[in-house]
Structures are given as structure tokens and as C-alpha cells.
């Protein structure tokens, strides 16, 4: 019975780990064999650690008889504690306490993390305006060739060999990623400013969702974002794997000799990246101004994280006890969400990367941010409507760019929709979205 209990609880325990989620989110999509290998190693490590806990725990309990006596004070205290915890959960006070801790930032964990982890952002000091401040953070190595590209946008097929002698920025992106969209204005500005001096950007589009593999969708996104530089569609992640990349967005800066000299992952470090572009252009003999056009920004402390709405990477789902994969379930909307939790109401089918409304349904999220975005797709004839804290959202009242004057959000294809724009950053806001049948929702992202 002990073996059966362990076999039943093991997968539940293991899947709660952020390591497990990281492998599913970043490794498996690009390399199944490597992802499976990582999961095997992870499970072996967890098993060894738990075996050590079991063996050492038995020895400790044999010596600490006061802790094992069922009639002793310790066991009775634990029983009382469990009863109190159960009452907290039944009455919903556990969620209220969690929300209060997050909203008030009592433990200030993010500040502690920021003190422990060095910032990636470049300096804002006056000295950073000089190209001499360039920071090449990798030992030069030959840039892998673009490989396995399934389509091109804004250009005929090209290779890095064709671009030798120029400074090339390889940018891994995907069009519904909010982090990529925040980076896009800088990429456009750099391309416009330095293209005539021998600078080229190649946007390697590696899709996060199935609809991002469709060339027409990527073309529409490129037009919407005013992208003029070449885009390579890496639908099979072959160039992604060649660069051993793991992030959206990710930048690889290549010099005139075809060597990678600088990398940056995620948002930020815009001044540093532009300084390095200027320095590498200088190595080609081009004369460029040392004036920088970029500014840096940081995500607001306490902002809600990106939240996926499919079972592959879904987290903080309040309806977990009702969940059934790939089946239509009539979910009960939760009225006691903690910050960053989400809930479904009505008939929904949760798939690997999306949740699909099977009737008139509701999607609820308790967020901390100024702006809210949602990647979705569905019928174009029935609009969505939304409220924040029970108040209708319209174009003139907390609405994002995709909300009209009547409070409707009309879908025009699979992309990221801008739903909410508050006057300032706010915590503990409850967003309710009325979702018509046939609409699929993929992921929430947020802005400050």
C-alpha cells in the first residue's frame, strides 16, 4: 500500500516544481529527447532526495519519542493546527491572508531577490553614452547558420554567409509575446538608424502557439508592428536549437567576421545593446554617432506574471479540482481568488495550450498591473465584454486599444489583444471577461 500511495502522490508532488515547469516550457518545445532526458534526471534527483529524507527522518523519529507519541503534547498540537488550517481553507480566510501578504508586500521577497541577483539593465549614468562603454559578454564564436527556415518575410531567402562584412543582430521572437512586443520599438529604431551603415536585423520567428506557425498571421503581425527587416520562420525550432536558445526574446549580435560577440535575453539592456552595435559598426569602418536613442525600463515590483491558460503550462488555476484535460466541463466560477489566480465559469474545454469556451462562459483573473493583454482567437461575429471590479470597461473607461466605445472586443484573428489600461498600477483587481462560444484563450500578460 505504501508503494501504491507513493506512486499516486509522486507525479502530483513532482509536477509542482518550477524545474518541472521550466523543462516543459523551454526545453521540450525545441528538443523532445533532451526534455525527456532532463525530466528523467530530475525525477532521479527528487527520488534520491526523498529517500534521504525518509531514512534520516526515521532515525530522528526513533530518538524523538515525544514527537511520535499519539497521546503526547506534540501530536495533539499538530492535530489542533490541522483543524485550524482546515477551518481557514473552508471559510476562505487562507486566500484572504495570501492576498493581503501579496498586496502589502509584507515579506518584500522581490526586493530581496533583486539584491541577490545582479541586474541586467545597463547603467543610466552619463558615461554610458560613450561607445567606449561597450560590453561584449561572450568569448567570440562562429555564429551558427540559419537552418530549417520554413518561410521568409520581407526578403528572399538569405544566409549569414550572404551577410558577412555586415553587423547582424539575430532576434528570436514570437509575435504574441508581450516581452517581444515591448522590445520591438527598439529593434525598429535601430534598423532605421543604422541600416544604411551596414547593420542588418534578422528576426527569427520561433512559434510559441500553433497559430503562430501560419505565415499569413506572422505577416499581419509584421505589418502591424511596422517591421521592415527580414523575418525567418523557424517553425521547427532548428535555428533555435543551433543557437541553443531558450528565451523569447533573445538577441545575438554578430560582427563583420561572422562571430557572435554579444548576447542578451529578455527585455532591457537597450543602451548596452545599442552601444555594442555602434562599436561593431565602427570595426567595419562606418562612422556612426555615439548618441543613443534607447531608454531602459524595469517591470514594476509585484506585477502579475505571464499566465498560460492550457494544461501544459497552466498555473494558479482555482478550478483545479474540476479539471479534466481535453473534455468539456461546466466549471464553477470562483469568488475567492488570490492575486494572480484565474478561474473559469460555464462550459470550457481546456487543451494543452488553450482553453476554449463551449458556450457563453466567463474567464476571471485577479491581477496586479496597469495594463492587461490576452492572446486569443475565435469567431469574429460575437464580441467579448469585460469588467474590472464589477465596473464595465469601455474605450473611455479603463479600456485598452482593442476595446471600443461600447465596451466590445471584436476578434479579427489569433493575436494578443489589449484589454485593460488603468490610470496607474493597481493591485488586487478582479477582471471578468464574458467569452462567447468558440473563442480560445491562450495566455495573459501584463504591463505597468
Q: Nutshell version of this structure?
A:
This protein is α+β, with helices and mostly antiparallel strands and 448 residues long.
Structural class: alpha+beta
Write the CATH homologous superfamily of the largest domain: Glutaredoxin
Strand content: 15-25%
Low-confidence regions: 116-133, 294-298
* Average residue pLDDT: 83
Count of individual helical segments: 11
Describe this structure in words.
There is one protein chain. With 448 residues, the protein is an alpha+beta fold. The chain has three domains: 90 residues, no CATH class; 158 residues, Glutaredoxin (3-Layer(aba) Sandwich); 141 residues, Sandwich (Jelly Rolls), CATH 2.60.120. The protein has eleven helices and 16 strands. The strands form two sheets. Strands 8, 9, 10, 11, 12, 13, 14, 15 and 16 form a nine-stranded antiparallel β-sheet that branches. Strands 1-7-6-3-4-5-2 form a seven-stranded mixed β-sheet, with helices on one face. 31% of the residues are buried.
Keywords:
about 450 residues; alpha+beta; Glutaredoxin; Jelly Rolls; 3 domains; 9-stranded antiparallel sheet; 7-stranded mixed sheet; globular
Question: What topology does this entry show?
Answer:
Elements: H1 2-15, H2 18-27, H3 32-63, H4 65-68, H5 73-91, H6 93-104, H7 109-116, E1 141-142, E2 151-153, E3 167-173, H8 178-194, E4 199-205, H9 215-224, E5 231-233, H10 238-242, E6 250-254, E7 259-265, H11 270-283, E8 307-308, E9 328-331, E10 342-350, E11 355-357, E12 361-377, E13 385-388, E14 391-392, E15 415-435, E16 440-447
Parallel strand pairs: 3-4, 4-5
Antiparallel strand pairs: 1-7, 2-5, 3-6, 6-7, 8-16, 9-10, 10-11, 10-12, 11-16, 12-15, 12-16, 13-14, 13-15
Helix pairs in contact: 2-3
Amino acid at each position: 500500500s505504501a508503494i501504491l500511495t507513493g506512486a499516486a502522490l509522486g507525479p502530483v508532488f513532482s509536477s509542482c516544481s518550477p524545474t518541472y515547469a521550466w523543462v516543459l516550457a523551454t526545453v521540450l518545445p525545441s528538443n523532445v529527447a533532451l526534455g525527456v532526458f532532463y525530466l528523467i534526471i530530475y525525477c532521479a534527483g527528487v527520488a534520491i532526495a526523498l529517500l534521504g529524507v525518509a531514512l534520516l527522518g526515521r532515525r530522528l523519529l526513533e530518538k524523538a519519542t515525544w514527537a511520535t507519541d499519539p497521546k503526547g503534547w506534540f501530536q495533539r498540537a499538530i492535530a489542533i493546527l490541522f483543524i485550524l488550517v482546515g477551518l481557514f481553507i473552508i471559510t476562505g480566510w487562507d486566500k484572504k491572508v495570501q492576498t493581503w501578504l501579496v498586496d502589502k508586500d509584507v515579506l518584500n521577497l522581490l526586493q530581496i531577490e533583486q539584491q541577490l541577483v545582479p541586474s541586467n539593465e545597463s547603467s543610466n549614468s552619463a558615461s554610458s553614452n560613450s561607445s567606449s562603454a561597450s560590453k561584449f559578454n561572450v568569448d567570440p564564436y562562429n555564429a551558427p547558420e540559419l537552418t530549417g527556415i520554413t518561410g521568409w518575410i520581407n526578403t528572399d531567402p538569405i544566409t549569414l554567409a550572404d551577410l558577412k562584412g555586415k553587423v547582424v543582430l539575430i532576434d528570436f521572437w514570437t509575435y504574441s509575446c508581450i516581452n517581444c512586443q515591448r522590445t520591438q520599438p527598439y529593434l525598429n529604431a535601430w534598423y532605421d538608424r543604422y541600416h544604411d551603415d551596414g547593420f542588418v536585423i534578422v528576426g527569427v520567428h520561433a512559434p510559441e502557439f500553433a497559430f503562430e506557425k501560419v505565415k499569413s498571421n506572422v505577416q499581419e503581425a509584421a505589418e502591424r508592428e511596422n517591421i521592415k527587416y527580414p523575418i525567418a520562420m523557424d517553425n521547427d525550432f532548428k535555428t533555435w536549437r543551433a543557437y541553443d536558445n531558450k528565451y523569447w526574446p533573445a538577441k545575438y549580435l554578430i560582427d563583420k567576421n561572422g562571430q557572435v560577440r554579444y548576447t542578451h535575453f529578455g527585455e532591457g539592456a537597450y543602451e548596452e545593446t545599442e552601444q555594442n552595435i555602434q562599436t561593431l559598426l565602427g570595426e567595419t569602418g562606418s562612422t556612426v554617432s555615439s548618441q543613443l536613442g534607447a531608454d531602459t525600463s524595469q517591470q514594476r515590483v509585484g506585477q502579475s506574471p505571464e499566465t498560460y491558460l492550457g494544461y501544459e503550462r497552466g498555473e494558479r488555476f482555482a478550478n483545479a479540482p474540476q479539471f479534466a484535460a481535453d473534455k468539456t466541463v461546466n466549471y464553477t466560477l470562483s469568488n475567492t481568488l488570490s492575486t494572480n489566480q484565474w478561474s473559469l465559469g460555464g462550459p470550457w474545454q481546456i487543451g494543452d495550450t488553450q482553453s476554449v469556451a463551449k458556450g457563453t462562459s466567463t474567464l476571471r483573473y485577479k491581477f496586479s498591473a496597469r495594463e492587461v493583454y490576452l492572446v486569443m482567437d475565435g469567431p469574429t461575429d460575437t464580441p467579448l465584454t469585460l469588467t474590472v471590479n464589477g465596473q464595465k470597461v469601455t474605450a473611455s473607461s479603463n479600456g485598452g486599444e482593442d476595446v471600443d466605445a461600447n465596451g466590445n472586443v471584436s476578434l479579427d484573428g489569433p493575436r494578443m489583444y489589449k484589454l485593460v489600461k488603468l490610470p496607474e498600477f493597481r493591485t488586487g483587481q478582479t477582471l471578468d471577461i464574458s467569452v462567447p462560444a468558440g473563442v480560445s484563450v491562450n495566455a495573459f500578460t501584463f504591463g505597468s
